[in-house]
Write a structure and sequence with these properties.
One of its GO terms (molecular function) is ATP binding. With about 475 residues, the protein is α/β, with parallel strands linked by helices. Helices cover about 45% and strands about 10% of the residues. It has four domains: about 5-130, Response regulator (Rossmann fold); about 160-310, Rossmann fold (3-Layer(aba) Sandwich), CATH 3.40.50.300; about 315-390, Helicase, Ruva Protein, domain 3; about 400-465, Orthogonal Bundle (Arc Repressor Mutant, subunit A), CATH 1.10.10. It is built from 19 helices and twelve strands. The strands form three sheets. A five-stranded parallel beta sheet has the order 2-1-3-4-5, with helices on both faces. It has a five-stranded parallel beta sheet with strand order 7-8-11-6-12. A two-stranded antiparallel ribbon has the order 9-10.
Length: about 475
Amino acid sequence: MCEKQGRLRILVVDDEQKQRQILKILLNSEGYEVRTADSVETALERMAEKEPDIVITDLRMEGQDGIALLEQTKRKYPNCKVILLTGYGSIENAVEAMKKGAWFYFVKGKGPEELLAELRKLQNAYLSKQNGKRLQEENRNYMLDTKNEELRKIFRIVERAAKSSANILILGESGVGKEVFANYIHQLSRPDRKFLAVNCHALSDSLMESELFGHEKGAFTGAIGTYKGRFEAAEDGTLFLDEIGDIPRNVQSKLLRTLETRTIERVGSTQSIPVDFRLISATNVDLEQAMKDGDFRSDLYYRLCTITIVLPPLRERKEDLPELIRFFLKKYGAEQEKEMKEPDAEVGDALLAYNYKGNIRELKNVIERLVVLSEDGTVSLEDLPDQFFEKKMPVKESFGGSSLKEVRMQAEKELILEVLQMQQCKTKETAEHLGISERQLFNKLKEYEIDLKKLKMKQKEKSKPPVERVV
């Protein structure tokens, strides 16, 4: 596929120079990337240099003919489509060629409309395939491959809603991936247009109106020229308003009018400017409560929520965690030029057990930290952030003044000793009780200098019956 605008690469093969030139001019005018060849041999050389998407070849040529080129093309370049040019007297041969894999045949002397229409079909098919690949590549993450049934239902709704221009409201906690999800909807609906994201929380009340709707020169102090706002900038594309719950009341009124009339008025102007955009908005604010409190207009809310999507927090879809962890390990490993290994059971259990208050955003930060601090691609339990151990740390006076690491090690050692005693020093049962492997248990015994033989001796001493004294 030609990189420029995703246009098709076409190779025209004809032993008549005039015919080659006519086709090249016609196809170039339609925006295709066109090369020519005067024989089958030359065509194969051109194809070896750069594989075309389509070969348009004359059926009858001196030397090898179009059928020979068709057969060799289908053998060497199976994805390449072959269109045959034929005279009225050779239609039967062309039909036979269709059975051998030709895509289409065009009778010389007809107007070019039929040929161009067929090329447009191929163009659209290629673009659809290209967009599908881009979607897979850009969203090759948790969004497109979930095991959570609730999120699967959301995807089914979105895939239908994306075909329309309905306003979509995305709700969910901070960090669940609302902007990523908005971008995904955009890719499904308007992939060749702009995606413009605006964080409303980051804009002051005084600047928000100008930023969204634009302003005229001299509209206020500092307005030294005309400025097109985000609604105009997103023409034909998607405008994503994140944290829409933070928009002040005066801007809410203007936004409502824009959604109802599909026009905007720049600050300092009374002229209505038509706009065409897809609106997706998002917030982690409880808008229903905001309406009750008078902070958010109910009429605007019902305009925004034609389709409402509530993204679940990460703690409610932990079945996706293993795949998410692998994805971010690979992603950040590539960025740091490290070949990352699968986390061992101890690190993996810690990552899976933790409740990520910051959702996907926090998980990404944790995995990036582990990758940066890793040695030889191995992630270490010691490199996890402190909050992973806060709930497990016993609070004892004897730990006063100790570092966090010392507290955790002491607590871990005491727990291992307690379970060993309870399991009568049986390492297999102790490891199972602790949720680790027997090998990991032996490593911990060595790390904490726990002498298993001495513990067993003490167990035996305690288990001996008392000696009766004869008086």
